[in-house]
Amino acid sequence: MKKILFPTDFSEVSKNAFIYALKLAESINAEIVTMHVYQLPQANYINVSEYLHEIYDVTELSNFENYKDEVPILRSIAEANNLDHIKISHVLILGNLILEIQKIINEEDIDFVVMGTKGATGLKETFLGTVATKVMNDVKAVVLAIPEHCKYHPIEKILFITEYKPEDTASFLKVMDFAKIFQAHIDCLRVEPVHHEVKNDYINNWNEIIKNKDIIFHSIKGDDVEGIILNFIDLHKINLVAMHVHHRNFFEKLFEISLSKKLAFHINVPILAIHE
């Protein structure tokens, strides 16, 4: 059976993302492993060793009680969506979030990481946004990030951000597999700088890959990359954005207001990040 890792911080953002984890689990016949990672508070005592055990006990008990209270809430979300047949297990860990995610991915042979993320407000990142970016950058797994205001919608149209180069091919094949699960259409988009001639040396290879598939290639010229992508998402009713991790700057910027066009909204569709 396939496995989905769902890191959670008990927030409404995480609970909203849990629906996507459940729907994905149903589609690929997977089980879900939820995990909460906590750290010990910083102690400023002179004789810290005398207090460390006490701090550990109090912190661990507090986190256990919180997690114990949250587990029924996750189960109720599954029941409300008629997905209570999905197998769900829970892990509470003391440690560093990124390191523990990497460890459990290797030990449990995780197929996907699904997690919630908050968009930036102006130019200021929130904690979850920062964590999601670090997970996508540092964890060698397919990560599905769900923005806080993204309400579940069946995945019917996927946008793959690419430059049509060989290094994007492996990720593109994974996106094709993902699209097949949901019988979704794929649009591939490259944003070309206005005053820079882009060669299409590899486009014939890409055309061979998509032969007889429900996939369309697009190239748009412009310097406002994020604005063009946002407009494309809106115009084509995109349900999910997929990208190779070396395009991660798109991910970070898409969660900020596009100041150049003064767009008063954030991206509100899931992002599928595929590591190099």
TrEMBL record:
Residues 1-146 form the UspA domain. Belongs to the universal stress protein A family. Signal peptide: none annotated. Gene3D superfamilies: HUPs. This is Nucleotide-binding universal stress protein, UspA family.
